[in-house]
Amino acid sequence: MSNPPGKLIIISGPSGAGKSTVVNRLLAECTLPLTLSVSATTRHPRPGETHGKEYWFLSPEDFAARKARGDFLEAKEVFGRGYWYGTLAETVSSGLKSGKWVILEIDVHGAATVLEVHPDAITIFIHPGSLAELERRLRNRGTESEANISRRLEVASEELAMMHRYTHEVINREVDQAVAELCTLLQKYDLG
After folding, report:
1. Which residues, 6 or more positions from 42, have their beta carbon under 8 angstroms from its beta carbon?
2. Labelling 153: which of 44, 69, 97, 130 has CA 20 to 30 A away?
């Protein structure tokens, strides 16, 4: 007997909203058959990152060749730094075929592109409640230059304006609450 097909879950939100923290906890704590689609990128690994775990680290040439072949559901250069990020279609389709609930943690533009192919995806927008809170979080990270913070806030403002395109909104004021809310929300889609 084959597995019932999985579900596609798109999670977006501004940089600094805590998406990765919430998604990682969701994967660990929610009993649904969740899996995170590993994105591809042309940026170099940061200390502690592993090829195939956090990202598929591809050379710019390999990424461009795959993009030209149509291997990506969506791909975009992010923050004007010359680094590309993308979702490999095969990663998503193999996960769905095996009955997994595949999570894409992607930006609003990537989400719009994926929804053209997967209009039935479950869409969730995570944010910290306000642009001021987002700015506080970005500054507290201590990893960004003033120019990067300004650029991220500009992009965040544009992303927040597109929140209405998502079926669900989760305000990440506190990680435990956001994870519990997300898991409860997703369990409502588990009709089997």
Report:
1. 57, 58, 59, 60, 63, 82, 83, 84, 85
2. 44
Burial 126-164 (b: 16+ CB within 10 A, else e): bbbeeeebbbebbeeeeeeeeeebebbbebbeebbeeee
* Mean pLDDT of the region 152-170: 93
Q: Which domains does the chain have, with CATH numbers?
A: 8-186 (3.40.50.300)
Q: Which of 188, 186, 170 has its CA nearest to residue 21?
A: 170
Rounded Cα distance, 187 and 191, in Å? 8
Closest CA to 81 of 145, 131, 12: 145
| Confidence grade of residue 142 (pLDDT, cut at 50, 70, 90) | confident
Q: Could you write out the DSSP letters of every residue in 47-93?
A: TT--BTTTBEE--HHHHHHHHHHT-EEEEEE-TTSS-EEEEEHHHHH
